[in-house]
Amino acid sequence: MININDLYVRYKTEKGYANAVDHIGLSIEKGIIFGLVGESGSGKTTLGLTLLRILPPSAEVASGSIYVNGTDILKLDEDDMRKWRGKRIAMVFQGAMNSLNPVINIERQVAEPLVIHEEMDEERAIIIAREKLAMLGLGENVWKRYPHELSGGMKQRVVIAMAIITNPDILIADEPTTALDVVTQDRIMKLIKSLQREYNLTTILISHDLPIVSEVADRIAIMYGGKICEVGENEQIIKNAKHPYTIGLLSSIAEPGSSKEIKGIPGEPISLINPPPGCRFYNRCQFASAKCKTYAYKLKSIEEKHDVYCTLYGE
Amino acid sequence: MVNNMYIVEAYGVKKYFRVKGSFLEKERRYIKAIDGVSIKIEKGEIYSLVGETGSGKTTFGRILIGLIEPTEGTVKIDGVDIFSVGRKKMKEIRKRVQIIFQDPYGSLNPRMKVRDTVAEPLKLNKIDYNDEKIAILLEEVGLKPASDFMERYPHQLSGGQRQRVAIARALSLSPEFIVADEPVSMLDVSIRANFLNMMKELNKKYNLSMLMITHDISVASYVGQKLSVVYLGKVLEQGEKNEIIKNPLHPYTKALMEAIATLGKKEKEVHIKGDIPNPINIPKGCRFHPRCPFAMDICREIEPDLIEISGTHSVACHLYKN
C-alpha cells in the first residue's frame, strides 16, 4: 500500500543540513499496524510529516518517492495533495490533545473536517461526528462539553475521532500515548487495535516506547539517526533482534517483577547534523569495527520479512 | 543526638489548596492534594511513590523537604520536626536534603555554565570549592571527562546529560536524602536505564536515601526497596516493593500492574473503570470505588483505613480484613 524509496528529507539549520530522514526505504502493507520506533531525534516524526507533505518551510525532500496505492504523493501538485491530506491519509499529532480549541464544543470540533473538506452542512456533519465519538467510547454526555472538562484520555479519543471522521485509508499516530497514564495508554492502544480490526485501517504508529508498540503492531521498524536499522514482523524484532541498537533498546526495558538487570546504551544519541559517514550507531556500538566507518547501509535479509542494516551480517 | 533509623518520617500529612472561585460561592472549595499520608523512609533506602497525574505525589515530595508547608501533619527529618523548628535550624536541615525535578530543560539556568550550576549551592552556603571538587562531582554522575562539560551551557547538553548535571548539583552539599521527582520520564529509553543504574549506585555508595516519585510502576519496581501507591492524595497500598509487585492486593495496584505494557503482542484485561476524578470532588467512602470493579455497598459509605496484612505490607481496601 505504501512504498517509500530512497527518501531523503533534510532541514536547513545554521550549522548545516540535519538529515532527519536519510535515504530510507520501507513498504507498508494494507490493513496492518506498522510501528515506527525511535528515540527523540531519530527522524520518525519527520517521516510521518513527509507522508502528509506538511513539513515546515526549513525542510526539503531532497530525493526519493512515496507511493501510496500506486501514486507518488511527492509528485502531486498542492491541489491534489489537499484532497489526499486528511481524507485518505490522516494524522494524530503529538500533543494534539492539548491543541483542541477551548471555546468550541467537542462535537463541533470533530465535525469540522467534514464541513471544511467535504463542504458538508454542519448539522449532518455533527450527526456523523456523534457516531464516531460513540464508536470511540465517548457517549452523549461528552458531545456538548468543552475540552477543559475532559480527561487526557478522553481528549485523545476526540483527536482520534477528528482524524478518522473522513474515513481515511491511512492513519498516522505520532506518540499517541505519551504523557498519558498507563491505564489510559492501554485504552488508546486497544482503540487503535479495534480500528484496525473493524475498519481495516492501516496505521503507522510512531513511538519511542517499544513495549507499547509491541503490544499492537504487526510489523516494527527501528529508526536511529535518520536511518532504519532493522525492520521485521513484531515477533522477529522482539524475540530475534539482530541490530545492536535494537538489542540495546530491548535490554534497556525494565519489566515489573523481573529481577533482570537493565542495561542502557552507553553514550548519547547522535546529532542529525553532519553525521559521520558509515553506520550512525558506530560510536555507541559494542560490536563496532573498522568496516562500520564506511558502511553504506546495504539491506541484509535475516529471514523472510526480517531485514537488518548492520555489518555484523555481511556488508 | 539520638541515632534515628529513619531519615524521613511523615505522619498524617495533609495539604489542601484553596480553589479561587467566585465570591458568590457560599462554600470555600479545596483541592485535597494530599489527604492524610504517613510514610517512613529508612536511612539508605530508596522509597518509591507511585501514582497517576493528579495523585498528589509531587506535592508530597515537596512537603517532605520543606518546600511546601502542609495543612496538617508532621514531617521529621532525622528526628527533627521541620515545620516547628526555627529558621536557622531549618537552613541546616535544608542542606541535608535535595530535590531533582522532572524537566531537565526547565530546571537548569540556561545562562549558567555547568561548572557554575554545580557550584551554586556551595557558593550560597559559603563553602569553599575549586574546579577539582566540581570535576569530582561531574565524574561521579558519569560526565567524563569533566573538563569536556565544565564550560558548557545547558543547551549544549542532551536531556540525559542535563539530568546528570542536576544530580551533580544536588550532590554538591553531600545530602543524606534526595527527592527525585519523575527524573527519567522525559529521558529516552536507552538513556533511562543508565540513569537509574547510576541512582542505584549513588544510593549504595553514599548510603543516600531517596524518594523516587514516578507514574511508572516498572521504574519503581526496578529501583528501591519500599513502595507506596497513592491515589487522589491517599496511600492505597504500602510496603516492601517485592511483596507488592509479586502480590498486589489493592484493586488499583492490580489494575496498574495489568495495564503496564510489556514486550510482545497481546490483549490484556485491565480491571478498572473510568478516569481519575477531579481532586476537588473526591468520592465519598473509598475514593477509588467509582472505578473499582469489586466495589461493595460499604465502599460507597466508609473510607477504609490502611491495615497491615503482614508486617511489611499494608492495604486500604474493604476486601481485606486484618
What is the oligomer described by this structure? heterodimer
Q: Radius of gyration of chain A, Cα only, in angstroms? A: 20 Å
The H-and-E topology of chain B, N to C, reads as EEEHEEHEHHHHEHEHEEHHHEE
How many domain units of chain B? 1
Low-confidence stretches of chain A: none
The largest contact between protein chains, plus residue counts on each side, is: A-B, 46 and 43 residues
Can you tell me the CATH architecture of chain B? Answer: 3-Layer(aba) Sandwich
Low-pLDDT residue intervals, each spanning 5 or more residues of chain B? none
Distance between the first and last residues' Cα of chain A: 29 Å
Strands side by side in the biggest sheet of chain A: 6-7-8-3-9-10-12-11
Describe the structure in your own words:
Chain A is of the alpha/beta class. Chain A has helices at 44-52, 78-84, 106-117, 122-135, 140-143, 152-164, 182-199, 210-216, 234-239, 244-251, and strands at 2-13, 16-28, 33-38, 59-68, 71-72, 89-92, 170-174, 202-207, 219-224, 227-233, 300-303, 306-308. Chain A contains ten helices and twelve strands. In chain A, the strands form two sheets. Chain A has an eight-stranded mixed beta sheet with strand order 6-7-8-3-9-10-12-11, with helices on both faces. In chain A, a hairpin with a 2-residue loop joins β9 and β10 (227-233). Chain B has one domain: P-loop containing nucleotide triphosphate hydrolases (Rossmann fold, 3-Layer(aba) Sandwich), CATH 3.40.50.300. Chain B is 31% helix and 24% strand. The two termini of chain B are 37 Å apart. Chain B has helices at 57-64, 87-96, 114-124, 131-140, 147-150, 159-171, 189-206, 217-222, 241-246, 251-259, 297-301, and strands spanning 6-19, 29-42, 46-50, 72-77, 80-81, 97-100, 177-181, 209-214, 226-231, 234-240, 307-310, 313-315. Chain B is built from eleven helices and twelve strands. The chains are: A alpha/beta (315), B alpha/beta (322).
